[in-house]
Design goal:
With about 800 residues, the protein is mainly beta. The protein is built from three helices and 51 strands. Strands 8, 12, 15, 18, 19, 22, 23 and 25 form an eight-stranded mixed β-sheet that branches. Strands 1, 3, 7, 9 and 11 form a five-stranded antiparallel β-sheet that branches. A hairpin with a 4-residue loop joins strand 32 and strand 33.
Length: about 800
């Protein structure tokens, strides 16, 4: 195998003495046929490492493309052929020489688990360097979500091709992986789009699409992408979808795409760096890749395949998060991504497709409880005023709160009965009303809105989390802010002037003139948005992507909306849910995109959920991560009684079909798997609840039970479930409790050992990854020190406030 040549090549490319260089190289002279696929495998170090860069050693005259796969096991599958010609997945794949392609076999030793893609190369692409503190997890033995072997696929175009003289490869092709000891602070993963197709000849443009919904719990930060086609490809795009039609996964997805990324596949097929775009992939995002082909040069149908005269349609998106998940998409209809390696498949593969029994779940205050502070070093609890609205960022790390400060009193004297004008305080609230809170430390890290608001109510985030949208009932406005700077971006409605939507002489309504005590707002990826114009006009107003009013919701029956109090968008982005509070129901509307009319968005009534037996629906949230089959709507109801008679319930509305996020309908009633969970703890927790935000989360509990001990010892039990943040409008003078309380819905610790519940339980072996824990602790120490100075400088002097108790 020419070890001396390998050593020379490693010394030539190994520039960073702190790195470990892992060589996966193939001798070109061992390959004799065009369109040969050659595989080489390398076991990773026993200790934890992080990939810092990928260095290709190849020339496009010889090599068509290379793919680097990752496996959990320390060896590849025994069925993987080391050298073969044509094809890739099946024995009947067509090769370019007219023969039958050889079967590849499985890549990883666990043939039930799909291999993950770590790196791809083509057309003399440059090396890829990972961002600081980001890398793929390799080595470490049984450590969770790590790759213990790498498998390189080299597709030879022409083993005897004329090589550029400046490309000194020493007759070898492959990849050198540079790695550093210890797991990274943020773990990298790759999302891959690919699909089969046939291209008709003689067409100037043929489109091929692959669409999937991201349903994992962590928000992903994208930092690089690569596209791949063969010679007919002209451009490849990635879009975030808006609306749609048909049941997800059953029909080809129709809707409006918002362009995120685009690249010419005839350019060097490298990973283009996109960190500056700050692209976030959030739970519930529906992502479509489209490849555009020109087949004017072909006289016969071109099939998708791995020979250089076939075609391909691929997009690779590199992302990072605290828990990696490598995913692949081959769907045209918006089905969930398939999991290669990552959170969703870690220890729970056999339970995917099952849902725990609601009777096994219990809701309780989070442990440890959320304690809001001015900064991480502050020992005193910051007491938030009445919470008008609350929303959690994608991934569940931060919460945004819109509170009313110390001056708000919503009672019979707050608004003029005839005109609905706000007649409370003559001056705006003199504290920052919009807060961003870290849900682990409880520290407030952003705040703005001082001297801007009179009666805060609803709060929401744009899909990319770059904008904060709020509704102010006193101002009768919807206002948007930059989420980082706090700069006001837009105002909708006229300040302090309520607008009553009345028909004119022709019976037409002119809803564009403003709002009257709006309660909530939801935003789509294209900029279209919906406003619950709740207390006076009892409607949901629709605005297009140019922020122009286009109409209202239309309800079929005689019982029109009566105080639409909260809004939520479904897991797959095709449905708007409306908490029709005083009618004791949640209304569901299809989000319809007029593809032929410029992509205009409208709402079409679909069904309703009757919650009368539980109470009035004050709060509404949609959980879009479905890793534990708990995605769906979460509805907070209150019977609006006081003291001991007061009850608050959390209703989970789960789709009956686990593989389909859309509900069944019978007689206009949506059929969900509905479970009810009581908020317990007496009047302290069951009076004046106002809004909720729910997301897929987990709670870690210490345990000394022997059944939770692994071979290396350990004492942590992680219960997976749903975190729920409830905002209250209570009088803080009479209670020591916060107006912002976090709850957890999951399996009780005492019941966690049952076989039925293991899908919601992870055993954390404390000693399985000491290097990773040491790295994490070091990072936390640095973060705490950094926060000490930053929070002290930016948050000093913030006024502490209390609020007055009212239920609106």
């Amino acid at each position: 195998d020419d070890d001396d040549d390998d050593d020379d090549l490693l010394r030539q490319h190994h520039r960073n003495v702190r790195d470990t260089a892992l060589s996966l190289l193939v001798n070109d002279r061992d390959v004799t046929e065009t369109d040969s696929y050659v595989y080489t495998t390398l076991a990773m170090p026993e200790t934890a490492h992080s990939v810092t860069s990928f260095e290709p050693v190849a020339d496009m005259a010889v090599v068509h493309h290379m793919l680097l796969f990752g496996c959990r096991e320390r060896e590849a599958s025994k069925t993987l052929k080391k050298v073969r010609v044509g094809g890739m997945f099946s024995s009947s794949s067509s090769s370019t020489n007219g023969g039958e392609g050889e079967p590849r076999g499985a890549v990883c030793a666990n043939e039930d688990e799909q291999e993950a893609v770590l790196f791809a190369w083509g057309k003399n692409a440059a090396p890829l360097h990972m961002p600081q503190n980001v890398g793929f997890r390799i080595g470490g033995g049984e450590a969770k979500n790590t790759f213990n072997s790498l498998v390189l696929e080299v597709h030879y175009l022409d083993p005897n091709g004329a090589v550029d003289s400046s490309n000194n490869r020493n007759g070898k092709s492959g990849v050198i992986v540079h790695a550093r000891k210890g797991f990274p602070i943020s773990s990298a993963a790759t999302l891959v789009w690919a699909t089969g197709f046939h291209l008709p000849p003689g067409k100037e443009e043929v489109k091929v699409e692959a669409t999937c919904v991201y349903d994992q719990p962590r928000a992903l930060k994208a930092f690089g992408f690569r596209v791949h086609t063969h010679e007919l490809g002209r451009r490849v795009t990635l879009e975030r979808m808006v609306g749609g039609a048909g049941r997800t996964g059953n029909l080809e997805r129709r809707g409006k795409g918002v362009l995120l990324l685009e690249r010419d596949p005839q350019l060097p097929q490298e990973f283009e760096q996109i960190a500056e775009k700050k692209l976030i992939i959030a739970p519930g995002d529906v992502l479509r890749t489209t490849c555009y082909f020109n087949t004017m040069s072909r006289t016969a149908v071109t099939k998708a395949g791995w020979g250089h005269t076939n075609e391909m349609c691929n997009l690779y998106l590199m992302v990072h998060s605290d828990e990696p998940a490598s995913l692949s998409c081959m769907s045209k209809g918006g089905a969930p991504f398939d999991i290669s390696i990552g959170t969703g498949s870690s220890g729970t593969q056999s339970f995917i497709g099952t849902r725990p029994f609601a009777t096994d779940l219990k809701i309780s205050k989070s442990n440890p409880p959320l304690t809001v502070k001015m900064n991480v070093r502050d020992k005193e609890t910051f007491r938030i005023g009445q919470v008008g609205g609350v929303v959690v960022e994608p991934g569940g790390e931060f919460a945004w709160v819109f509170h009313r400060g110390p001056k708000v009193v919503w009672d019979e004297y707050s608004f003029d009965v005839e005109t609905n004008e706000y007649v409370g305080s003559k001056t705006p609230i003199d504290v920052e009303t919009i807060l961003r809170i870290h849900l682990v430390t409880g520290a407030i890290d952003r705040k703005f809105g001082k001297d801007k608001h009179f009666m805060p109510h609803g709060i929401s985030l744009s899909p990319d989390a770059k904008e904060v949208w709020v509704t102010d009932c006193g101002l009768h406005q919807v206002i948007t802010y930059d989420a980082v700077t706090g700069k006001m971006l837009n105002e909708f409605g006229t300040a302090m002037q309520p607008f009553r939507k009345m028909p004119n002489s022709e019976g037409q309504h002119h809803g564009a003139q403003g709002f009257c005590k709006p309660t909530a707002v939801e935003i789509l990826a294209d900029g279209s948005f919906f406003v619950a114009d709740g207390y006076c006009n009892h409607r949901v107003a629709i605005y297009n992507d140019k922020h122009v009013y286009v109409g209202d919701t239309i309800v079929r029956d005689e019982m029109q909306l009566n105080v639409p109090h909260a809004l939520a968008i479904s897991m797959d982005g095709t449905e708007l849910a409306v908490a029709d509070r005083e009618n004791y129901r949640v209304m569901l509307f299809d989000i319809v995109v007029d593809a032929e009319g410029g992509g205009e968005v409208s709402l079409k009534e679909r069904a309703k959920i009757d919650v009368r037996e539980y109470g009035l629906p004050y709060g509404l949230s949609a959980v879009k991560a479905n890793d534990k089959q708990l995605a769906g709507y979460y509805i907070m109801t209150w019977n609006r009684k006081i003291n001991e008679q007061s009850t608050v319930k959390i209703l989970s509305a789960w789709p009956m079909d686990l593989g389909n996020p859309r509900e069944d309908i019978v007689d206009d009633n949506a059929i969900f798997d509905i479970a009810s969970f009581d908020i317990e703890g007496g009047a302290e927790y069951t009076q004046y609840p106002h809004g909720i935000s729910a997301w897929s989360g987990a709670e870690t509990t210490k345990t000394s039970r022997s059944q939770y001990y692994g071979k290396n010892g350990g004492s942590l039990l992680r219960r997976n479930g749903i975190d729920i943040l409830i905002g209250y409008t209570r009088d803080l003078i009479d209670t020591s409790e916060s107006n912002l309380i976090e709850w957890f819905l999951g399996v009780a610790v005492d019941d966690a050992e049952s076989t039925e519940n293991r899908a919601l339980v992870d055993f954390v072996n404390v000693s399985e990854s000491n290097d990773a824990y040491a790295t994490d602790l070091a990072f936390i120490a640095v973060l705490m020190l950094f926060s000490f100075f930053i929070f002290h400088a930016t948050l000093a002097g913030f006024n502490r406030v209390v609020s007055v108790d009212k239920s609106n």
